[in-house]
Amino acid sequence: MTTRRTSATLKVALALAAFTASGTALAQTYYKWQTVEMPSASAARCGNGSPYRIFVNRTPLTSKTVVMFEGGGACWAKGSCSGEGGLLGASNPDGVPANYVTSLSMAAYGLITPFTSRINPFASIQTQSWNIIYVPYCTGDVHTGNRSAVYPDADPTQPALTYQHRGAANAAALAAWMGKNMPRPDHLLVTGFSAGGAGATANYAVLREAVQPKLSSMLADSGPLMQAPRGSGAASLPLHEKIRVAWGLDGPDGLVTKMLAKYPGKGDANNLGSMSLALAKAFPQDRLGFAVFQQDQIYSDFSYRDFYPDVAAATTDEARKPLLLSRWQPEVKAWTQAMTPFANVGFYVPYERNLIKSHCLTILGFGGTGIKEANLRTVESFLDNMISRTAPVIKAYATAPQAQDAGGGGALWDSIVKLFTGA
């Protein structure tokens, strides 16, 4: 009898110890930002050659996962790749430190977007209860490059800059890590803002193939790959030709080369904009969403300033604005028209809001992103439509030139954004 009691007591003690240990492990693993450094053998790295890191916030309650590609500027010269140019220059030129998400950085402690904070003071969204992966931006190539570049200084007596455009390599390393370390998602959402919007689009297939989710969706915010076929005269064509070379998109290990090989016949090598539509063809069961403002003066500036003398010569925002928008708005219209025939592709294009020159719909909060004539109060309705799938995809384009308030005053939000981005 004594032996049985001792045995039973031992089993209870062991169970309690196991429960306590698992509880401790739970507290250490979940609902906290975990820093994950990509292995150097994967070719993942920041522009300055330093290690590339991602940040993961897990939950034990669901396998659903949101991957958020960070935004920022881009570069193809020493100055901008060194971080000059404010919002238009390369982000994080000194790399991504291990405490990036929990420090004064673009991530803003996870508050830069409702997608990356469990509780957000500016907006709530259903993905806040999912597993969250924050993908920093430090390669100056909208997360698409795979090339080492050497950029000379304007002063020949100064050293050149060796810069690693490895955004696509970083995303491939992320995909490999997710495939080995995350459960198969019941639902995967790949999203991003600004350069991250382009990155979400460019790397969607790589991530999706790695984790094989049961359902998969995408929301690319303000990082459009415009329809610009070679020979078309499209306003974004000079930009596309520049980045093909600077970032190695058409090289043997380039993103475009790999995508066309993986999905033959889905895209057009002579039109970078066709890569978005290639996703719709390759994954007809997925929902793919794109959002942008008609008055975006940041992404349009990035797209045109270096290639059009009249834009470059403008000395004030007021003088530059009509030069940008006269090119931007027709391109946005053609971009949405190309997406219209696809049943699994949605778009959301409001007119204007008073936050960083109408750039991005999903940073900080969703205020000022409505499309009144479509009865859509904010872009959150568009996102819920993408995820919930209870109705056909939304294709909404504002027809009235309505300027909206971001809430709390656009000047205040601009100051907050500039504080965290260094612009």
Explain how this protein is built.
- With 423 residues, this protein is α/β, with parallel strands linked by helices.
- It contains 12 helices and 13 strands.
- The strands form 3 sheets. A 9-stranded mixed sheet has the order 1-2-4-3-7-8-9-10-12, with helices on both faces.
- The relative contact order is 0.11.
- Mean pLDDT is 90; it is low at 1-26.
Main traits of this protein?
12 helices, nine-stranded mixed sheet, alpha/beta, two-stranded antiparallel ribbon, single chain, disordered N terminus, 423 residues
- Count of alpha and pi helical runs: 12
Described by strand count, sense and barrel closure, the largest sheet is: 9 strands, mixed
The stretches of 5 or more residues where confidence is low (pLDDT under 50) are 1-26
Mean pLDDT: 90
Helix proportion of residues, in percent?
Answer: 25-40%
Give the ordered list of helices and strands. HEEEHEEEHEHEHHHEHHHEEHEEH
Q: Got a strand count?
A: 13
Spatial strand arrangement across the major sheet:
1-2-4-3-7-8-9-10-12
Q: How does the overall form come out from the CA principal axes?
A: globular
Cα Rg: 22 Å
- Share in β-strands: 5-15%
* Span between termini: 75 Å
Instruction: Find the structural class using helix and strand composition.
Output: alpha/beta
